[in-house]
């Protein structure tokens, strides 16, 4: 523990001038060549209108960014909200009669149905991102969206455990590319200093999905018996129909990469390209991606560590998402009231994640904004582990706010921090898919962490969540130290005038000697 605290203090307070990026809120004070990193430093444009970048004659940078935000963020947020809703609404359905009607109340059949989702979801992440680049985002993402909407409808029509297993498997097939694909696409539009609040706003759609799912399940639960269907079936059918309708509209609205969209003028396109090249190097959009490029990315030890950062948080995040209704119901609430009580913790997580994102972007710092929220989640799980009894349900319910606010605030920072430190299309595409794919192995662990025999206290589940939160903190420390080491090594190489050609630099991405990592 003392080593961990020492590392935290070292990274937070004693940041080396050879490795730190400019840490000023007034960007006009950061002049090219004045950085401690020398000429290799990647810094922001010194003015809002893009001085030292191609001029904008018909608009301003602020208006251009607003235009980009309007085209990208609403589409991706709604897409992922529906994807996450269709993934975790089984938790709401479980307490509305799914378990009893399909005879899943004994043993681990229900947990296995949750687990089967993650098999294709993990294995197909990287192929999905490769297809995203080949087919264009608006085509691939909207097709997948229609697919998982249709499967969700089918989930409401199953009559056996085998049918539920089949639909959950195909739900994983169609949802596999949603999260890494959206993050990859956003990463090709925004600078590192612009990304965190936008990534967190996008990721907060998961918390809105949790809140909206609880509210919707409350309403749909009232349809129990309509046309002979139980309320839990209507949860799947209605939410699946909503997704299918949106997928058709989203085929025409989803954005592609900056090099491909038609709603940018050539002047705006040139400006975006130049700004991103100045921040993270050239995009390498034209470089074709094969298995050799994939393997080259996966050999990078920093990429492996990035997977463990996310892996450690997935266990508590999915543990809560899937089992929160059952946990809340164990406090003595009815099925209907449980749906309502599931909403406030998700809403709190939405607000807290936006605050964390704003602070992280304002300070241009990531490490502390991963560790602090994870510690909040650990505190929440520790309370749930040690406090029991209906007389203490207010304290137990309050602990859920710490869990959601901590876990769901740290996750977007971790993913953004990692993705935006990867330069170029091929490294960012493969690296982000690896992080999400490997990380979601934790989802399998989460589904077996809260089993029926441990109710109502779920001590094994809470202890597992605490352990994996600690793993995530250790991985974050290791990743930050790796970035410090790489920046120092490259600063020394810059002093020794180590250079590469512009073609090599474009192909290398963040492995280029001129690239500097943010931590």
How would you describe the overall organization of this protein?
With 519 residues, the protein is mainly alpha-helical. The chain has a single domain (66-258, 266-511), classed as Growth Hormone, Chain: A (Up-down Bundle). 71% of the residues lie in helices and 0% in strands. Pfam families: MFS_1. Residues 72-490 form the Major facilitator superfamily (MFS) profile domain.
Question: Summarize this, please?
Answer:
By secondary structure, the chain is mostly helical. The protein has helices spanning 2-12, 61-101, 109-116, 118-123, 125-135, 137-155, 161-175, 178-187, 192-220, 231-253, 266-280, 291-298, 301-329, 335-341, 343-363, 368-386, 393-420, 425-439, 441-447, 459-495, 502-508. The protein has one domain: Growth Hormone, Chain: A, CATH 1.20.1250.
Keywords:
transmembrane, mainly alpha, Major facilitator superfamily (MFS) profile domain-containing protein, globular, about 70% helix, Growth Hormone, Chain: A, disordered N terminus, about 525 residues, transmembrane helix, signal, transmembrane transporter activity
CATH topology: Growth Hormone, Chain: A
Q: What is the makeup of the main sheet?
A: none
Taking all Cα atoms into account, the compactness measure Rg is: 23 Å
Number of helices: 21
Question: What's the order of the H and E elements?
Answer: HHHHHHHHHHHHHHHHHHHHH
Count of extended strands: 0
Overall 3D form: globular
Residues in helices, as a percent range = over 70%
State which percent range the strand residues make up: under 5%
**Spatial gap, N to C terminus:** 21 Å
CATH class: Mainly Alpha
């Amino acid at each position: 523990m003392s080593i961990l605290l020492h590392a935290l203090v070292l990274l937070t307070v004693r940041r080396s001038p050879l490795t730190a990026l400019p840490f000023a809120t007034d960007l006009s004070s950061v002049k090219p060549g004045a950085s401690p990193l020398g000429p290799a430093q990647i810094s922001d444009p010194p003015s809002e209108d893009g001085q030292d970048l191609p001029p904008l004659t018909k608009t301003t940078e602020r208006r251009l960014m607003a235009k980009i935000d309007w085209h990208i963020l609403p589409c991706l947020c709604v897409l992922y909200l529906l994807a996450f809703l269709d993934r975790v609404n089984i938790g709401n359905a479980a307490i509305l009669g799914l378990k009893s009607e399909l005879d899943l109340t004994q043993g681990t059949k229900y947990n296995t149905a949750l687990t089967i989702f993650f098999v294709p979801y993990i294995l197909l992440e990287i192929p999905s991102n490769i297809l995203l680049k080949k087919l264009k985002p608006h085509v691939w993402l909207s097709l997948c969206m229609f697919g998982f909407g249709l499967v969700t409808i089918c989930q409401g029509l199953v009559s056996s455990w085998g049918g539920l297993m089949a639909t959950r498997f195909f739900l994983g097939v169609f949802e596999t590319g949603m999260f890494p694909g959206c993050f990859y696409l956003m990463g090709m539009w925004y600078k590192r200093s612009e990304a965190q609040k936008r990534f967190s706003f996008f990721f907060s759609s998961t918390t809105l999905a949790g809140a909206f799912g609880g509210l919707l399940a409350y309403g749909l639960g009232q349809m129990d018996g309509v046309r002979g269907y139980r309320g839990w079936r209507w949860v799947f059918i209605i939410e699946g129909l909503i997704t299918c309708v949106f997928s058709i509209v989203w085929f025409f609205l989803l954005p592609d990469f900056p090099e491909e969209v038609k709603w940018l003028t050539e002047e705006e396109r040139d400006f975006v390209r130049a700004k991103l090249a100045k921040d993270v190097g050239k995009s390498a959009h034209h470089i074709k991606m094969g298995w050799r490029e994939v393997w080259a990315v996966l050999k990078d030890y920093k990429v492996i560590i990035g997977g463990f950062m996310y892996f450690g948080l997935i266990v508590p995040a999915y543990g809560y998402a899937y089992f929160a209704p059952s946990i809340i119901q164990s406090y003595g609430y009815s099925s209907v009231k449980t749906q309502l009580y599931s909403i406030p913790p998700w809403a709190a997580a939405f607000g807290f994640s936006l605050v964390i994102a704003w602070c992280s972007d304002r300070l241009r710092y990531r490490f502390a904004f991963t560790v602090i929220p994870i510690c909040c989640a650990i505190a929440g799980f520790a309370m749930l582990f040690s406090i029991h009894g209906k007389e203490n349900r207010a304290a137990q319910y309050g602990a859920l706010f710490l869990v959601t606010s901590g876990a769901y605030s740290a996750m977007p920072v971790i993913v953004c921090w990692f993705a935006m430190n990867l330069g170029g299309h091929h490294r960012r595409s493969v690296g982000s898919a690896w992080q999400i794919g490997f990380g979601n192995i934790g989802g399998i662990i989460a589904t077996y962490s809260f089993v029926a025999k441990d109710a109502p206290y779920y001590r094994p589940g809470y202890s597992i969540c605490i352990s994996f939160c600690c793993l995530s903190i250790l991985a974050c420390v290791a990743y930050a130290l790796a970035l410090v080491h790489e920046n120092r090594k490259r600063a020394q190489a810059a002093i020794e005038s180590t250079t590469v050609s512009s073609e090599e630099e474009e192909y290398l991405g963040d492995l280029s000697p001129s690239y500097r990592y943010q931590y």
